[in-house]
User: What shape does this take?
Amino acid sequence: MSIVKAIWKPMVQRAVTGRARRFRMRRVQPEWPGALRSPGLYLHVPFCKNLCPYCPYNRVEYDEGLFAAYERAVKQEIDLYAPYIGGQPFTSLYIGGGTPTVNWPGLVSILKHLRERLGPMDDICIELHPGNMDAECLSALREAGVTRLSIGVESTSDAILERIGRSHDGRVGPAAVSRAVAMGFASVNADLMFALPGQTLAEWQADVEAVVGLGVDQLSTYPMFSFPYSDLGAAQGIRQVARPAHRTVKAMLDFTDEHCDEKGLPRCAVWSWLRPGRGKFSSITRHHYIGFGPSAASMTGTDFYVNTFDVRAYADTLPAERPVAASMPVNRRIEMAYWLYWRVYELEISQARFRDVFGPDASLDAEFGLLLRPLMLAGLLERTQGGYRVTKPGAYWIHRLQNEYSLSYINHLWGACRREPWPEEVRL
Ligand code: SF4
Assistant: This one.
């Protein structure tokens, strides 16, 4: 760790979470969740047909036998939770991966089990790989109650897709988006990746214009995350992967902002643009959530924990006990910090919403004034009638800070959990 980072990281952490010491996560069984606040659910399907080398997510190559073991185990995990959380009004279910539809009949069977054991949920959102979503699969998802889709187009350029190791050419993504838009889901989001090795501004502009032109409700853009533990990071030393200069990256984001605005999709988060009136497709911006599947995380208000990443270890542990690999207790202050992180990502920090979650006496200024005021002075935040808003320059810098956050925290946790199924202790 550099000296600068060794100094600023504890300072920022203290201002946000109230503690400078590192967090420790251990393999302990957390408390069973009780009454959760606006809870969401998450399901992780950790299989892909092709393993992209840059991918930071927990996934393994698809294998029919392993998928069968996973399907059996995830239903048993749901059964374990059912007496504690069943019947609550869940705001949403988010299905991520991996490639959730790699075996879509299996997925539909898990969805049926979820509803039977936990009750109905308002919204079901799913991440899709454009190569695994034919018309039959989309119809089955609609029948199973799926409402929102997010399609990983990533790029429309054959050369870029080949360079980053994707298994499809530039026509597959747009064709999949058109198919989904025509089927009348509540919303369709398309993901595009930017700041890719060798990517030019002109290539990026062509991607944005092509995807927005297909009539998507939301566009989300992601930089190539610099996770040292990804296959690419391990092979090349992730800091050495050549990426466009920062001014090019900034120009890419500026173009996206202007083009989306012009086409009626104003910015709704650091990396997303949304058609007004359409609900946002968003993965982890719920306050409390329970995750099922290998590597799924849960935030219950008393604990934050992640399941083992290893699919075989996950399947072998169930149904005897919850397959939790690393857990830490959370207090009110950490919950507040977690809330703030996601509101900053959504660009609006509302005092009223803060009170809704943390009680009538909770005050943003009292809790986070020391952090928010300098950001205002730096022009990254502005005051609004009801709280704070992230400015346009602020959105750019937050995107860079999130990359740093990812390296500091997520990389340690996910790296340790990918190395071994049950790490002794993870320090963040
Ligand atoms: S980027 Fe998507 S398709 Fe590629 S390995 Fe990761 S989860 Fe699978």
